[in-house]
Design goal:
Elements (H helix, E strand, L loop, with lengths): L1 H4 L6 H7 L3 H9 L6 H5 L3 H11 L2 H28 L1 H20 L7 H18 L10 H15 L6 H7 L3 H9 L3 H28 L1 H14 L2 H8 L3 H25 L5
Keywords: Membrane, Transmembrane, Transmembrane helix
Protein name: DUF368 domain-containing protein
Organism: Methanobacterium spitsbergense
Length: about 270
């Protein structure tokens, strides 16, 4: 998920879906309501810890956050290099990931209906238009960075919507990559705080939709993921013919990786 989250065009939520932890992740985040803080402020540490353990799925969050953190810190430089020097190849790999992920999400939908198809079309149109937007020339003040963290994290947890791409659109991606590389503490902490506020509030809505309108939500997500293919297509289409062949091979490799991951991890009892 950390690797995907630093890639404009790929969602960490897509990876969570592939590996079978998506619904558990959304539900676990939505359960956090910070009731453990009240006894903590009263120095009732044992009671605070007991409430904290009930609220927070540590068996999920500890390895997940460690993996995301390591990936973001180590791969930000690599992604900057790949996107600067191998744009078409990188986005071809992304496209393979997205197409395979779309197929996996589609399998979650209970048959075909006009209702599901309609929500899929809405998702597709929304993503297709959104991906075609021109970047907004926003500044890099701390309030803007906080708001950027809120927006990006909401996108990161949605399969098909890339948080990194959101940052590109609001002119914060390169700035935050540089902030990570140079370990700019104030910017990093501000972004993380915005992300925490965003994910805790948004996860409640998403958990409700998955619990009560799962197939409609999945249909919308399928449309989102197909719509975001506009971005890798635009990046690949401008390359030379011989590069397109290599891009196609990379896309197929990515597709195969996702299918293998899905078969290996999807039905593991976490």
């Amino acid at each position: 998920m950390g690797t995907a989250d630093v890639m404009p065009g790929v969602s960490g939520g897509t990876i969570a879906l592939i590996t079978g932890i998506y619904e558990r992740l959304v539900h676990s985040i939505s359960k956090i309501n910070f009731k453990f803080l009240k006894p903590l402020f009263k120095a009732q540490f044992k009671e605070s810890w007991q409430i904290f353990r009930k609220e927070v799925d540590l068996e999920l969050f500890i390895p997940l956050l460690m993996g995301i953190g390591i990936a973001v810190l180590t791969l930000s430089r690599l992604m900057s290099f790949l996107l600067a020097n191998y744009v078409a190849f990188t986005y071809a790999f992304f496209a393979g990931l997205i197409i395979a992920s779309t197929y996996i999400v589609y399998k979650e939908i209970d048959g075909f209906s006009v209702k599901y198809f309609s929500f899929g079309i809405v998702g597709f149109v929304f993503a297709f238009i959104f991906v075609g937007l021109n970047p907004i020339q926003a500044n890099h003040t701390l309030p803007i960075i906080f708001f950027s963290g809120m927006l990006a994290i909401c996108a990161m947890i949605l399969p098909g919507i890339s948080g990194a791409f959101i940052l590109l659109l609001i002119n914060q991606y390169e700035y935050m990559i540089n902030a990570l590389n140079s370990v700019s503490i104030s910017e990093i902490i501000t972004f993380i705080l915005g992300a925490l506020v965003g994910i805790i509030s948004f996860s409640r809505l998403l958990d409700y939709l998955l619990q009560h309108h799962e197939h409609v939500t999945m249909s919308f997500l399928v449309g989102l993921m197909l719509g975001t293919l506009r971005l890798p297509y635009q990046k690949i289409a401008v390359t030379e013919t011989n590069s397109i062949i290599v891009s196609a091979v990379l896309g197929l490799i990515a597709f195969g990786i996702v299918i293998i991951m899905e078969k290996k991890f999807r039905y593991i009892d976490y």
